[in-house]
Amino acid sequence: MLRTPLVVALLGVGAAAQAQNVTLYGIMDVGVEHLTHVNAQGDSLTRMPNLTGTVPSRIGVRGTEDLGGGWQALFNLESGIALKSGGLNNGGRMWGRAAYVGAAGPFGRLTLGRQVNMTVLAVSSHVMGPALYSFASHDPYIPNAISDNALGYLGTFSGVTVGATYSLGRDTASIGGPAATSCPGEAADSRQCRQWTALLKYDAPSFGVAASHDVMHGGPGAAFGMTSSDHTDERTVVSAWRRVGGVKVSGGVLHRKRDNVARLVSNLVYAGASVPVTAALTADMELSKLDVRSSPNDSTMVVLRGVYALSKRTAIYAMAGHLRNEEGAAVSLSAGGTVGVGMSQSGVMAGIRHTF
Asked: What pLDDT, on a 0 to 100 scale, did the predictor assign at position 19?
C-alpha cells in the first residue's frame, strides 16, 4: 500500500499516545471568492483560494510528557494544507507551520525548531485574525511570521507574557512568496539571514495590550531585495483589545523600516470589532490603512464578515471587502491575489470551516 511520509507519521500517533499525551488536531477551511480588477485590463476572477478562508487550514500533532518536578517535554508538528489541491502551503514544507521540540517548567518554555515568532503573538488577539481579507493583505509577512532554525522562549506570569525567538537562518525554502524567501543562513557571516523577535504582553479578563519587535537580516540571493547581511527589515507592533459585554474591539499599529537598496518606511494602522448578533451568528468588521512614507503606494481597506456556527466544530461564513489603492500601489484585497496597479478591488467570499 502506498503511504506518504505525512500519513506514515500520523499512523504513528496511536502508538506514541500510549507513552505520552499526544493530540491529533486540525482546521479545514475553504471557500469560493469573486474578485474585481485582478490585472491591468480590469478583469474579474472567480476562484477557490489556495491560502486561507477565515483561518489557514492545517493538520498537526502535538504532545507532552511529564518529567516530574513541574517539568514536561513537548513537541509540535503542524502542516499548512491547501484544500483546493491537497498540496502544502508555507513554502511547500511538510511541517511548515510548526516543527519543534522543547521543555516547559515553572519559568516558561524553551523550544527549538521551526516556530511562530513574536510578531504573530502580538497580533493574535485581533478580531479578524489571519483571514483572506484582513489587514495582513497589506503586509503578507504577518501570517507568515514563522522562523526556521529558531530558539524560542515564552513565559506567562500573573497575566504578563514575555517571549523571544532567535533564528540562525530564518527561511530555508526558496519557492517564492513571503513564506519562502531563500535565506537559509547558518554561514560564516554571523549576521547572514539571522532574525530575532521579542514580545511583552499583558492580558486581563476584559482587555489586553501587546508590543513586539522583529528584526531580520538578509543574505546572498534572498528575496525582496534583502541580498546582503547588512540589509535589515524591522517591524514593531503595538496592539490592544477590549471586551465590553459581548462585543470585542481590537486594533494596533505596525511600523516597518526596511533598509536595503530600496529603502521603505511605513505605518499600518488597523482596527476592528466582533459583535454577537445571536447565539450562533457573529458579525466582524475591520478598517485598515497602509501609509508608505514619501510614496504614492498607500492603500485603505474595509472588510465585513458574518460567521454562523452550525455546531461547536463547524461554521459557515461570508465576507466582503473593498481595497482602494493609490496611484502606485498594487495591494490585493485577497491574500496571495493580484490587482492592477493603482486600481481599487472588491471581493466577496463564502465558505465553510471545520475543526477537529
From this structure: 53
